[in-house]
Amino acid sequence: MAAPARFRRVLLKVSGEALLGAQPFGIDEKVVDRIAGEVGQAVESGVEVALVVGGGNIFRGMTIAKAGGNRVAGDHMGMLATVMNAIGMHEALERRGISSRIFSAVPMPTICETFSQQRAERALKRGRVVLFAGGTGNPFFTTDSGAALRAAEMGCDALFKGTNVDGVYSADPKKHPDAVRFDRITHAEVLARGLQVMDAAAVALARDNHIPLIVFSIQAPNAFVEVLHGQGRATIIADE
Ligand SMILES: Nc1ncnc2c1ncn2[C@@H]1O[C@H](COP(=O)(O)OP(=O)(O)OP(=O)(O)O)[C@@H](O)[C@H]1O
Ligand SMILES: O=c1ccn([C@@H]2O[C@H](COP(=O)(O)O)[C@@H](O)[C@H]2O)c(=O)[nH]1
To answer: Where does ATP bind (predicted)?
Structure first.
């Protein structure tokens, strides 16, 4: 039997790209369903779970900016992409009987609730999974920053970043196969070395609020549950 979870309340950030599965674009329902199942296991073990899903499988504002377009409009499109992913994840959770609510930073009351710290707090305390959509609600940010912000607001014990690499490396492992992986590193070192696994604003916010960041591969089945219980492969970014 797995060791008891070491956390009371966590925020899981899932990279949008991870939802692609084998597809070039959009959402692979099998991936979403698997992640929903793992979130359900965490909830069953007594952990309160908040969820942020990126939008990289659908749209990133930088795509428009790099082509000479309006970054703000592109970022608005990116934020809407995160709402689409949140709706997909909400559906997958509900299909499995896991009660969840979507709180968007961008008001769209006919589709989901607008973010309120107090209402999200009540939902988490009742054992609901809360999905934070729309990032920070502002352009020039990313969902990593949105996740760090919500983790601080909700008093999360840790922010789990489920991505397509199994931790933090000395350089991007996709471009530098000889990069060295860290088991543990401080927020300050990540910033000083300019490691790009998360954006600097998110790492700084986590550092200032003493929130550990746990980077692991969401593509590895069951990794979230294992890492939550102190097993599996991950890099812990934390105070010394
Ligand atoms: N030093 C590093 N260590 C580990 N990964 C790194 C590092 N530098 C860059 N990366 C890259 O960072 C990426 C992690 O970001 P990710 O794909 O999760 O993007 P995101 O913006 O958080 O999500 P989305 O897919 O929704 O845009 C990995 O694909 C990895 O290749
Ligand atoms: O606070 C935010 C969060 C996100 N965006 C835009 O959305 C896309 C998708 O988010 P990822 O973090 O890249 O998955 C992002 O590229 C931005 O364009 C935003 O503007 N503000």
So the answer is: 13-16, 56, 60, 163-164, 169, 172
Q: How many CB atoms lie within 10 A of CB 199?
A: 15
Q: Whose CA is nearest to atom 8 of ligand 2?
A: 78
Cα(121) to ligand 1 centroid in Å equals: 29
Residue 237 identity (one-letter amino acid) = I
The alpha carbon of 208 and the centre of ligand 1 are apart by a number of angstroms equal to 22
Q: Could you write out the DSSP letters of every residue in 203-215?
A: HHHHHHTT--EEE
143 is in an annotated binding site: yes
Cβ proximity of 16 and 80 under 8 Å: no
Domain boundaries, the chain: 9-237
* pLDDT tens profile 69-122: 999 999 999 999 999 999 999 999 999 999 999 999 999 999 999 999 999 999
Cβ-based neighbour number of residue 159 at 10 Å: 28
For residue 182, the ligand closest to its alpha carbon is: 1
Is 186 known to sit in a ligand binding site? no
ipTM value for the complex: 0.96
Pairwise CA distance, residues 223 & 240, whole Å: 25
The ligand that comes nearest to the alpha carbon of residue 57 is 1
Residue 38: name the closest of 102, 85, 78, 98 by CA: 98
Give this prediction's pTM. Answer: 0.97
CATH number among 1.10.10.10, 3.40.1160.10, 3.60.20.10, 3.90.105.10, domain 9-237 = 3.40.1160.10
Characterize the bridge pairing of strands 158-163 and 9-14: parallel
